[in-house]
Specification:
Number of helices: 8
Radius of gyration: 19 Å
Strand content: under 5%
CATH architecture of the largest domain: Orthogonal Bundle
Structural class: mainly alpha
Helix content: 55-70%
CATH superfamily of the largest domain: RNA polymerase sigma factor, region 2, helix turn helix motif
Largest sheet: none
Length: 186
């Protein structure tokens, strides 16, 4: 395999299947940022996110022969990462201690507008109780259905819908307050 072939994902995947360490390194470097971004959305501590990234890549390398090349590799590695994050949270019993789900007594009528940076978005997600964060990520970002979320998290579908609604309301309130704060500084 020459250096030019490393630029093509199918060649890298084939190299990984053959045990080529250079291919493993290229795959890791190519998808590290993507996998870390998923882990950070699910896990509030960077150390735990790094553990999820490493565990995800171990699973990818151990199961690379199961990857169906007809399907998107990015989707496949993303699903492995989501499942790894959920497994880590289960192991630590984090989402069983989801926190207080009470919303402020006031209602929100105004729409959040403006551009928020990635750090602000992650900070908003960090403020959500764990189950709300999981459901929000899985439904809104990963595209899972409520039935799939129910099965993966072992919660009723109605609870999945409730957690999503509460997460959206809390995020809306957080971003409105952030925008008001930014506008006050101007």
């Amino acid at each position: 395999m020459n250096e030019n072939q490393f630029l093509h994902l199918p060649a890298i995947i084939q190299g990984c299947r053959e045990g080529n360490e250079k291919c493993w390194e290229l795959l890791y470097k190519s998808y590290y940022g993507y996998v870390m971004s998923i882990a950070l959305r699910y896990l509030s501590r960077k150390q735990l996110a790094e553990e999820a990234v490493n565990d995800s890549f171990l699973k990818v390398f151990n199961h690379i022969n199961n990857y169906d090349t007809v399907k998107s590799f990015k989707t496949w590695i993303g699903q492995i990462t989501v499942n790894t994050c959920i497994d880590l949270l289960r192991k630590e019993n984090r989402f069983l201690r989801a926190g207080n789900d009470q919303l402020p007594a006031y209602s929100v009528n105004e729409t959040v507008t403006g551009k928020l940076n990635y750090a602000s978005i992650l900070k908003g997600l960090d403020k959500l109780p764990m189950l709300q964060r999981l459901v929000f990520n899985m439904y809104e970002i990963e595209g899972y259905s409520h039935a799939e979320i129910s099965e993966k998290l072992d919660i009723p579908e109605s609870s999945s819908r409730t957690y999503l609604t509460r997460a959206k309301k809390k995020l809306q309130i957080y971003y409105q307050e952030l925008i008001k704060e930014k506008n006050a500084r101007l």
